[in-house]
Amino acid sequence: MRKATSGRVTIRVHPASLSFTVTLESLTLEDEGTYSCGVDKPWLDSTFKVVVSVLPASATATASYLEGIRSTVGPPLFLSMHTWHSSTKQDTSRPSPQPWSLFSSIHFLLLVFLKVPLFLSMLSAVLWVNRPQRGSGWR
Questions:
Q1: 50 and 18 inside one domain
Q2: Which keywords has UniProt assigned to this entry (predicted)?
Q3: Residue 36 forms beta bridges with which residues?
Q4: Range of the domain at 80
Q5: What pTM value is reported for the model?
Q6: Domain match, 96 and 109 both
Q7: ∠ CA 11-14-20 to the nearest 5 degrees?
Q8: pLDDT tens digit sequence for 49-95
Q9: Please, which pLDDT band fits residue 102 given cuts at 50, 70 and 90?
C-alpha cells in the first residue's frame, strides 16, 4: 500500500485490489460540495462525481457508508466511505478486491485492435512473398 498526504487529504493506493482510498480529515461545513474522483487514463474519462455532505456529529462516533457507486465509463466502482466524529479513531478497513473487466484495459484494447491485426498482416505478407512460383516451363 502506498500513501500520500497533502494537508488534510490522504490518498492510499491498494495495488492488490486495484483501488484507492481518499480521506479528508477534520471536515468542516465548507467542505460540502461535489468532487471529481477517479484515475487519469489516456483517452478514457474514468472519473465520477462524489457529493459530500457534512452534518454536525453527535457525541458518539457515527459512520456513514456509501457503496455501489457506478461510474459512467468502465466497470462498476464500489466505494466504502467512513467518517467519524472522534479524531482518534482511524479507518483501518480496506476495500474488497474488485472485479475489473478485461475490456476496460487500454493494453488489452491495443492488443486486440492494433497489435494482433498488424501481426496477422505481416505474417500474410511474408507468406505471400515466399509462396512457390510457377516456372515458365511448367504446364
A1: yes
A2: Membrane, Transmembrane, Transmembrane helix
A3: 49
A4: 1-100
A5: 0.40
A6: no
A7: 40
A8: 888 888 776 644 444 433 333 333 444 444 444 444 333 334 444 44
A9: low
